[in-house]
Design a protein that fits this description.
Blueprint (H helix, E strand, L loop, with lengths): L2 H31 L12 E7 L2 H11 L1 H5 L3 H16 L6 H5 L4 E8 L3 E9 L3 H16 L3 E8 L2 E8 L4 E7 L3 E5 L2 H11 L22 E8 L3 H5 L8 H8 L2 E11 L2 E10 L6 H5 L5 E2 L10 E9 L17 H9 L1 E10 L10 E7 L2 H19 L5 E4 L2 E5 L5 H6 L10 E5 L2 E5 L2 H12 L8 H8 L4 E2 L1 E6 L4 H7 L2 H9 L1 H6 L2 E9 L2 E9 L13 E8 L9 E4 L6 E6 L4 E5 L5 E6 L5 E9 L4 E7 L3 E5 L11 E2 L6 E7 L8 E6 L3 E6 L11 E2 L9 E5 L2 E7 L4 E5 L11 E2 L9 E3 L8 E5 L4 E6 L4 E6 L8 E6 L7 E7 L2 E5 L5 E6 L6 E7 L5 E7 L4 E5 L5 E8 L5 E5 L4 E8 L2 E7 L4
Protein name: Outer membrane protein assembly factor BamB, contains PQQ-like beta-propeller repeat
Organism: Pontibacter saemangeumensis
Keywords: Membrane, Transmembrane, Transmembrane helix
């Protein structure tokens, strides 16, 4: 072959080879440059997916708002920072991972792995040649560093690299795909993503929601995808199984959501749209909502609400569908009652005083026609009485009638399975709302809260929160982490309780949370707000102690300021007594009201009772030999005072009304341990003239109404406890002996019957004994007693007695414990004399402890953390009285010193 043709052939072959290499290189380059939708890589097991694109701005904003300071102390955040620092230590030159990660659209998916662990996957684009070079150099430097160990392996054709941090003991696995790096501490998840890649055309987990992105909006820092179908599995890692049925059912309202994340000072806000869950029997299919409804029930929700589930529907009775088969004689009436409900239903879990206490709950339902609903309630009560051959059980509380409608799980029959857990049902109608609870005492306390305006609709702090939530919704979940603290501790998994306690300050700081769903077209507009309460409108920037008003008297004041209410407008007042035996009424505006010259010292407390045909407030109290009852003018009522004789020395006075019909009983005890009972006409009652006890009483007799029975609990100083009936006879199982002296109060947890009603007493030597009203001791626990000089008392909460603390005193040292026997705080004082300890709890973190030294006549006020309020010690010779104004978030304290009474306004520091 001639030279020229051979050269042409060689040139041609060379060209073909070069062209082939160029084509191959181009295709490889094109493949690597191909845009990958990272959302298609995310496994369907993801619970949450976070999409971000400006990490530096996000971090800066967290620092500006103070959120980062709170979150940076969490263990997972600290581990992430430590790992980042380790990688930065081997990074090439002065480049840092934070610079590499900045301004990238990165996905982070969160998964439940192995039904017990949470794991994360990070999906990070590699955008330029310089970034490729940085990663290559970083991986080379890691392989050379003794800080890391590296292994590679192939899985379904993909090269996986496993990295272990030898110092921290952490590890992660990663691989690259089309100019993206996918890494996770879980090799199992990485393998799941590889299997997903090998499928044909993987579909985005976000589905139709993927077309909605919020990252371009001002102040939006992330897109957050929520997979509601996987959410229960995630929450089940932290919550006990007993609450999971409700969690699973509520989660079935929607299948997924894509929300925008905004951050403001002390506030996290997510909003967007959720797709309804179309599966059969889901909450969405049950509700089939159309028009969302406002939170009208806020006027009746107590401020001590911990958790609220609120439903707003045109047809609220749909919540109870499908109706359970019921062949009872009252079935038709129950169905009619369900049909009378409209627009709103809610269930409120109230603040607990202890981890061991089952939370009280109240069901609320709006009624379309209050008169028609009242008639149905009366009809149902009559049908139940006839069927069970028992008289209807009702009681009057103020102007309201509470009825026992003993239909097991009545709220569930009316409103569906979210409203279960009512073994029996007490109901009361307040305006156009029906209120239902398993215990009558729950409704009594709730009616008191409504009367005193301790409700959401009157609270400045709560109203400010509700203004930022959706005003109309189909489903709303509200959580107050401070009020719910003991509930969270009760229902969190034991393994997670330590983490809960370690992060208590952060959880309690962001105490207000709402999650709401409001139907808009085919989807739910969804809003999640996590917020730290803004108290700027309730005194921020002022001194802790504010206005002080002083009232001088001619004689020394010898009693504490007794708390009472004004008989006309129920405003909160006090009464004091001077050394001459004169009682003075002090009004809410620190003015003198009525005066009563009693001539003898008051024994025990001044009690408030609605008496007479007009049911006005009257004030009852005892002196050494008399029982007094006075009106709002300080004048004795007809038949009063009762003269007990000079030989009898009264210790305490208790007043109660068995039937709530105005027929009050007056029970006194003397220093010999004798009990005497009278009616309001002064007639002595049989069995009580006297009812002799073997020892003096440690505290005033306490009346309980349990399952239609009247129980009078009597605690003796020698440690014997009696439960007596109306005739003064002991119930079976009583008396019981605590085997040690007692001088403090007693804690009561009312149940549906005698067996389920429990009482707790603390002996002087620190034995904590819990027993029921069948006389069975349920538990005995011994608190640590450092020496024989250490003495213990149980101190009930001053205003309502719903909770209590245990006090240990030893040689000038005072230690307080909560009802779960956890130490709250300890203080040391100058003198070793016994201190007067008072406990005030106004809901949530609004706790105040007052400790008075009787020798130096000083009172110390402490907040819930044991901090001295305002760093100020008050001059005081008696116990103090403190009121709380929910609307203004302000406290009013009354104290006496020598011949002066002071009214002092103060607030707790933020």
């Amino acid at each position: 072959m001639p030279a020229m043709p051979k050269r042409i052939v060689f040139y041609f072959i060379g060209f073909v080879i070069l062209a082939s290499l160029a084509y191959y290189s181009f295709n490889r380059w094109k493949g690597s440059r191909e845009k990958v939708d990272l959302w298609t890589l995310v496994p369907e097991s993801a619970v949450l997916v976070l999409e971000t694109n400006n990490h530096a701005a996000l971090l800066d904003h967290l620092r500006e708002t103070g959120l980062w300071e709170s979150f940076s102390v969490l263990p997972f955040a600290q581990r992430f920072e430590e790992n980042l620092a380790s990688l930065d230590s081997v990074a090439p030159g002065n480049q840092r991972l934070s610079r590499f990660l900045d301004e990238k659209e990165i996905l982070t998916s969160i998964h439940v792995v192995g039904k017990a662990d949470v794991a994360y996957v990070y999906y990070v684009p590699v955008a330029s040649v310089g970034e490729h070079r940085f990663l290559r150099t970083l991986t080379e430097d890691m392989s050379k560093s003794t800080l890391f160990e590296e292994e590679t392996r192939r899985y379904q054709g993909v090269l996986l690299t496993d990295i272990t941090n030898t110092r921290l003991g952490t590890h992660f696995t990663y691989f690259t795909h089309h100019n993206n790096i996918i890494l996770s501490p879980s090799g199992v998840l990485v393998e799941e993503i590889v299997r997903r890649l090998n499928r044909e055309e993987p579909i985005s987990i976000a589905g139709e929601l993927r077309g909605t992105t919020h990252l371009g909006k001002p102040e939006v820092y992330a897109n957050v995808f929520v997979n509601y179908r996987m959410l229960p599995d995630f929450l089940n890692l932290f919550l006990k199984e007993e609450v999971m049925p409700e969690v699973r059912y509520l989660s079935s309202l929607s299948q997924n959501a894509l929300l925008e994340l905004k951050l403001e000072r002390d506030k996290i806000f997510l909003s967007g749209f959720s797709s309804p869950e179309m599966l059969k029997n889901s909450l969405h299919q049950v509700m089939q909502p159309e028009k969302p409804q406002p939170l009208g029930v806020k006027a009746y929700l107590p401020s001590r609400t911990a958790l609220l589930l609120h439903f707003g529907l045109d047809e609220i009775e749909r919540l109870g569908m499908p109706r359970q088969e019921n062949k009872s004689v009252y079935a038709a009436t129950v169905d009619s009652l369900a049909q009378s409900l409209s627009e709103e239903a809610a269930i409120a879990y109230l603040e607990s005083a202890s981890i061991n206490a089952t939370p009280e709950k109240v069901a609320f339902a709006h009624v379309a026609d209050p008169a028609a609903t009242a008639a149905l309630l009366s009809s149902l009560s009559a049908q139940l009485a006839t069927a069970r051959k028992q008289p209807p059980v009702t009681e009057q509380h103020g102007s309201y009638t509470i009825q026992l409608l003993n239909v097991p799980e009545l709220p569930k029959h009316l409103l569906g399975k979210v409203f279960e857990g009512f073994e029996q049902c007490y109901v009361v109608q307040v305006d156009d709302y029906l209120l239902m609870a398993a215990r009558v005492v729950t409704l009594r306390s709730l009616l008191d809260d409504i009367a005193e305006e301790n409700v959401w609709g009157k609270s400045v702090v709560q109203k400010a929160f509700l203004e930022e939530t959706l005003h109309e919704a189909n489903l709303s979940i509200y959580l107050n982490t401070v009020n719910a603290w003991y509930i969270l501790n009760r229902y969190v998994e034991d393994a997670e309780r330590e983490n809960l306690l370690q992060n208590a300050s952060l959880i309690k700081r962001y105490s207000q949370l709402s999650l709401q769903f409001s139907k808009v077209g085919p989807q739910y507009y969804t809003s999640l707000l996590v917020r730290s309460p803004d108290r700027s409108n309730s005194g921020a920037g002022q001194d802790v102690f504010g206005v002080e008003q002083t009232l001088p008297f001619n004689a020394r004041l010898d009693t504490r300021p007794f708390p009472i209410h004004n008989a006309a407008d129920r405003s909160r007042e006090v009464v004091v007594q001077d050394s001459a035996g004169v009682l003075y009424n002090i009004t809410a505006n620190a003015q003198r009201g009525w005066v009563d010259s009693v001539g003898a010292s008051v024994r025990g407390d001044i009690l408030e009772v609605e008496m007479g045909p007009d049911k006005k407030l009257r004030y009852l109290f005892a002196t050494a030999g008399r029982i007094h009852a006075i009106n709002e003018q300080g004048q004795e009522l007809v038949n009063f005072p009762f003269n007990m004789g000079d030989s009898l020395s009264i210790q305490h006075l208790a007043v109660f009304d068995y039937e709530n019909d105005g027929n009050h009983r007056l029970l006194i005890d003397d220093i010999m341990g004798n009990l005497y009972m009278y009616d309001t006409r002064g007639a002595a009652l049989q069995g009580w003239q006297p009812r002799r006890m073997d020892y003096r009483l440690a505290t005033a007799p306490q009346h309980l109404r349990v399952g239609g029975r009247d129980v009078i609990v009597v605690v003796l100083e020698n440690g014997y406890i009696y439960a007596l009936n109306r005739q003064g006879d002991a119930y079976p199982g009583f008396p019981i002996s605590l085997k040690s002296p007692v001088t403090g109060g007693i804690g009561v947890n009312l149940g549906a019957d005698l067996r389920r009603t429990t009482l707790t007493a603390v002996t002087r030597y620190g034995s904590v004994v819990t027993f029921n009203l069948q006389g069975k001791v349920l538990s005995r626990e011994q608190l640590h007693r450092p020496s024989k000089r250490a003495m213990f008392d149980l101190v009930p909460e001053s205003s309502n007695g719903r909770s209590s603390v245990i006090v240990r005193q030893e040689q000038g040292k005072v230690t307080l414990f909560d009802q779960d026997l956890n130490e709250l705080f300890e203080k040391r004082y100058v003198t070793s004399a016994p201190k007067i300890v008072q406990y005030f709890h106004f809901g949530g973190a609004n706790r105040i402890y007052a400790i008075t030294e009787t020798g130096p006549q000083k009172t110390y006020l402490y907040d819930s953390e044991g901090n001295l309020i305002g760093n100020r010690v008050l001059e005081s010779s008696q116990p103090v009285t403190i009121y709380y104004n929910e609307a203004s978030n302000n406290y009013t304290l009354y104290k006496v010193f020598r011949n002066e009474l002071k009214q002092i306004d103060f607030r707790l520091p933020d």
